[in-house]
Amino acid sequence: MITSFLSNDTICAVATPPGMGAIAVVRLSGPDAHDIACSLFYQHGKPFPMDRIQGHKAYFGHIVVPESEEILDEVLVTFFKAPHSFTGEDSVEISVHGSVFVQQRLLELLIEKGARMAMPGEFTRRAFVNRKFDLAQAEAVADIIASQSEAAHRVAMNQLKGGFSKELQVLRSKLLEITSLIELELDFSEEDVEFADRSQLKALLDETQHHIGQLISSFRLGNAIKNGIPVAIVGETNTGKSTLLNALLKEDRAIVSDIAGTTRDTIEEVMNLNGTLFRFIDTAGIRETEETIEKIGIERTMRKIAEADIVLGMIDMTQGPQAMVEAARFMLKKVDLVHQTLIFLLNKSDLCAALGAESVALMKNTVCEALGEKAGHIYIQTISAKTGQGLDQLRQTLCGIEQVMNANHDAVLVTNVRHFEALKHASTSLEAVRKGLDEGIPTDLVAQDLREALYYLGSITGEITTEEVLGSIFGRFCIGK
Ligand SMILES: Nc1nc2c(ncn2[C@@H]2O[C@H](COP(=O)(O)OP(=O)(O)OP(=O)(O)O)[C@@H](O)[C@H]2O)c(=O)[nH]1
Ligand SMILES: [Mg+2]
Predict the structure, then answer these.
(1) Whose CA is nearest to atom 12 of ligand 1?
(2) Which runs of consecutive H residues, i.e. helices, occur in 315-416?
(3) Which residue among 238, 347, 359 has the greatest number of ligand 1 atoms within 8 angstroms of its CB, and so is best to mutate?
């Protein structure tokens, strides 16, 4: 039987992670939550009377199996009265000892008394339905649970507190203002008169478009904070890219060999450095090849270079100056220095320590020749991925770059792909509005594009939404959340 998400029955689930722990929390929410809990919760050998329930208060007692009157566990029960709960419904949290048996048995008892097992995300979904928060905030709950770094947590927390939703409200009211100006024209369209002040309309439109544009461009940083700043390790074959990935991770993640073309596919691993997530991407070495699979791997390398915020350009110092210069020139052409940071890593310093300073100078010259003034944005370091020489300095450089990237951290950041897509759609619709106004397209058609923009903004906070969207968002939550 498929139970509707919107049904108004009482649901239960274990809210703590699966398995054994010191304690576990079983959650109950819905119209019968208090009734069901009181039928199992005893104090001083007697069922806890419903009329003694006070919201936000924890009571110590026992869960008693009704037929046998056996005590299942010593528990702490916290009651919440609607609407003052996470879900907005009457709710109960029962803290039991963390035995898997106790958790399971308690769930069975709750179900016997009329509750039903919650589906993934159903508690949060009820909170959304009861307007405890909007959809963007509900998604922030999932992000907080998943956050692996201080920065990711901070961004998610800001979204939960409504920072992003407020921003959207501002945009929405601007769009409504534009709509009302356009509708004024529509009302008088019979008389073929342009009533609205077109310059005011266009200025408002540009302002809104600029605001949306800022949110769209914040996604690159928002996404980097949430999923790790993408750092692509690229270079010719056998330069030591996989050795570097393994050294940074301190584990043998990627296969290392002296055969050129060992890495075929990209390998990604996330690592927390000083509270910041970095997503290191080891790539297939770049060389001329006719081999089909290796070619696909190299194409993928090129895509990963484009997606990265930081590119680690690996160069094998033992190759000699000519090859080094060529490799550096190749990478300088591939990296977009406006949006990306390039770090040249001159590897295998253990084999030619004496050449270190000379190699760095050679790279500096090459970079200066290619870029002139802009050369300052490029880092050059010698390392030995094998012995670990220079890795600490590399970590420091990465953290330093992250600090610069995060300098304007107070701004609201878009971190969610769904929001990013919706904003891009809204922006396209607004572009059409602007074009329509410029080209004198009939006002009712322009109004249609405007409604579309409003629709996309509304879809972010869930004012306008479909069952399918809700299902896919809440389905990704775990049971009990
Ligand atoms: N001496 C020395 N050898 C290294 C160093 N880094 C890598 N190597 C060796 O260089 C060879 C190639 O290393 P990999 O890490 O597989 O190189 P790669 O760049 O991933 O190569 P592909 O995957 O083929 O593109 C291996 O034999 C490594 O042991 C280093 O710092 N010093
Ligand atoms: Mg490799």
Answers:
(1) 238
(2) 321-334, 356-371, 391-405
(3) 238
Distance CA 380, CA 374 (A): 14
Question: pTM of the entire structure?
Answer: 0.75
**Do residues 210 and 217 make contact, with C-beta atoms less than 8 angstroms apart?**
no
**Structure tokens, 448:** 């249609």
CB-CB contact of 189 with 230 (8 Å): no
Question: What's the CA gap between 152 and 172, in Å, rounded?
Answer: 27
CA of 273 to the centre of ligand 1 (A): 24
Atom of ligand 1 nearest to the CA of 256: 16
On whether the CB atoms of residues 305 and 333 are closer than 8 A, the answer is: no
Any atom of ligand 1 within 6 Å of the Cβ of 268: no
Please state which architecture CATH assigns to domain 231-405. Answer: 3-Layer(aba) Sandwich (3.40)
Q: Where are the domains of the chain?
A: 11-133, 140-218+415-462, 231-405
Question: Topology of 140-218+415-462 in CATH?
Answer: Four Helix Bundle (Hemerythrin (Met), subunit A) (1.20.120)
Sheet holding 229-235, edge to edge: 267-273, 276-282, 229-235, 310-316, 341-347, 378-382
**Domain range 11-133, CATH class:** alpha beta
Cβ of 253 closer than 6 Å to ligand 1, yes or no, is no
Tell which one of 243, 283, 381 to mutate to probe ligand 1, the residue whose CB is within 8 A of the most ligand atoms.
243
Provide the residue-wise pLDDT of the chain in tens; the chain has 481 residues. Answer: 334 455 689 999 999 988 888 999 999 999 999 999 999 999 999 999 999 999 999 999 999 998 898 999 999 999 999 999 999 999 999 999 999 999 999 999 999 999 999 999 999 999 999 999 899 998 998 888 888 888 888 889 888 888 899 999 999 999 988 888 887 776 665 555 555 567 888 888 999 999 999 999 989 888 888 889 999 999 999 999 999 999 999 999 999 999 888 888 899 999 988 888 899 999 999 887 788 888 888 888 889 999 999 999 999 999 988 889 999 989 988 898 888 899 999 999 999 878 878 888 888 888 878 777 665 568 999 999 999 999 999 999 999 988 877 765 567 889 999 999 999 999 999 999 999 988 888 888 888 999 999 999 999 988 877 787 788 888 878 777 8
